[in-house]
Amino acid sequence: MGRKRIYSSEAERQRAYRSRQALDKRIPAPPIPAVLAGLEPTRLTEIEKSVRELIADCRVWLNRLPESLQASPDGGTMSSTLTMLAIGADLLAEIGSDAKPPTP
Prior knowledge:
By secondary structure, the protein is an all-alpha fold. It contains 4 helices and no strands. Helix 2 (41-64) packs antiparallel against helix 4 (73-99). It starts with 9 loop residues before the first helix and ends in a 5-residue tail after the last helix. It has a domain at 41-99. It is 69% helix and 0% strand.
């Protein structure tokens, strides 16, 4: 006992498929916004400040760990994550300085 047929013939099934595809082509997908495009320099500075505060908090937390845990794989992962966050904060600072309008 198989599945009940929806279309009476293969040609009818193909026609229905092509009409669905034509409808999909008429509805354009919304544009994907750039993550940092159009952000004001003050907003970029706020984001950078938040990232740097997060780094400082995590460094305090990491320094409070016992030495045995600091040398563990988790401690190493946390250290490398902090390094990557610092690189990201530096990039945000660079983007923010590029986005600032020149002062006359």
